Amino acid sequence: MILSVVIVNYNVKYFLEQCLSSLKKALDQSEFHGDKAEVFVVDNNSTDGSMDFLKPLFPGFEFISSPVNAGFSKANNLALSYCSGEFILFLNPDTIIAEDSLVQCFSFFRTHENAGAVGVRMIDGSGHFLKESKRGFPWPLVSFFRLSGLAACFPSSRFFAAYYAGHLDQQKDNPVEILSGAFMMVRREAIEKTGGFDEQFFMYAEDIDLSYRISNAGFQNFYLASTTIIHFKGESTLRDLKYVHQFYLAMNQFMEKYLRGPGSSTKLFFLRLAISVRRQAAAAAILIQKKPAGPHKKPPLFITGDPDGFPEIRKALQRSGIRITETEASAGGIVYCESQHNPWKSIIGKMDHAKRKLFWFVHGSGTHGIVGSGSGPEQGEIISC
């Protein structure tokens, strides 16, 4: 087996359907097709009927149901016990990959024997580059610059913006310290030496921890700009106060694990203080951004891509009370219909290079939903077809 793919799902069946649809096309159009690849979906006790909905649609994939939501790390490690691939791809359910994403990663591994893991260039559902595609190790000073806002003031500085490796060109391949767990392809040898994810991290920071241990095991992590994927980002996790608590709890756990030696107590104190201030600010921002109750007026959408899918999409939008415009210039958002003649790579490229960063919605050929990016504390839009 060449490739094993692991996806952890929690209540995002329509996003996951788009993800699996794009993954299947990438596998079919690469050397990983047939018996050279395996896909494992671990469901963390979802309540949205994910497994019953998806199993019949993707008969070639393996679905593993967990009786409890044990967290991201444990779910990934559970799937790892079944994996036999030379390479393991950890992939988020709220991602859409291009048809050549897998090939690009594998080609890089072939020419870089020291590569332990690779990540790729990611954009969000509005077409913006996601800075977490490439990151530096969050040492106390690095984290302080990010938490204090200094990194945002000097976004290209190697010194101030090291958290997101701001000095590295996002359009060029580069060795990096930290990769995102949304798309992380890892050499099996690196997994065997590190032992997989640290299960003390329920969610968040587990990708930072694994990246760091891969580096310590003698491998190099790489960021690849040769392929771009969509990461709708956080659709499994509503951006509420619980999210804020869990995220900053993980940051504290991570620092306590690695910050050792003389002066570590003082460093931890000031770092915890900075984290606490940032946590309170994030919580306040969520409360301020909460929208008042009442009807929400949705912007008109323009449909483009595969004309065969337009009638179905029109009906779904009309059922949801969404207006449809016949011109892109007057649209507040765009629905891309994927097809053989309008592949995911083309759609991702259009979103990436669009002059106007609107709300984008996508519909994979043969799928049952239209999904798009939310904003602020809200989750993404989901429209059932």
Q: Gist?
A:
With 385 residues, the protein is an alpha/beta fold. Helices cover 35% and strands 20% of the residues.
Rg, rounded, reads 21 Å
The tally of beta strands, per DSSP, is 14
Question: How many angstroms separate the termini?
Answer: 36 Å
Q: From the 3D coordinates, which CATH architecture of the largest domain would you assign?
A: Alpha-Beta Complex
Strand content: 15-25%
Number of helices: 12
Low-confidence stretches: 236-241, 291-296, 375-379
CATH class of the largest domain: Alpha Beta
- The overall number of domains is 3
Helicity range of the residues? 25-40%
Largest sheet: 9 strands, mixed
| Full CATH superfamily name of the largest domain | Spore Coat Polysaccharide Biosynthesis Protein SpsA, Chain A
- Mean pLDDT comes to 84
Q: Which structural class do you get from the secondary structure elements?
A: alpha/beta
Name the shape in a single word.
globular
Order of helices and strands: EHEHEHEEHEHHEEHHEHHEHEHEEE
CATH topology type of the largest domain = Spore Coat Polysaccharide Biosynthesis Protein SpsA, Chain A
SSE arrangement:
Blueprint: E1 3-9, H1 13-28, E2 37-43, H2 50-54, E3 62-65, H3 72-80, E4 87-91, E5 95-96, H4 101-111, E6 115-123, H5 140-148, H6 150-153, E7 174-176, E8 183-187, H7 188-194, H8 206-216, E9 220-231, H9 241-258, H10 264-289, E10 301-305, H11 310-319, E11 333-337, H12 344-353, E12 359-363, E13 369-372, E14 382-384
Parallel strand pairs: 1-2, 1-4, 2-3, 6-9, 10-11, 11-12
Antiparallel strand pairs: 4-8, 5-9, 6-8, 7-9, 12-13, 13-14
Helix pairs in contact: 5-10, 9-10
